[in-house]
């Protein structure tokens, strides 16, 4: 049995996954906040909230990159 860690899923790979998930959830929370402000208030959400919501697709793309990198097998 191979007891050595897989280099594609350890170290920076896990860091990339954590950053991707963090950005995705921050963007998702910003999207929920935008809808909540529109429902419960008469004022429009600020530009900063819209810019923070862009973290959601960035996190999604980083998660795809992580998945593609982790899925490669060493030959």
From TrEMBL:
Highest taxon listed in the record's lineage: Bacteria
The entry's keywords: Membrane, Transmembrane, Transmembrane helix
Transmembrane segments annotated in the record for this chain: 21-41, 47-68
UniProt protein name: Integral membrane protein
Lineage of the species this protein comes from: Bacteria, Bacillati, Actinomycetota, Actinomycetes, Mycobacteriales
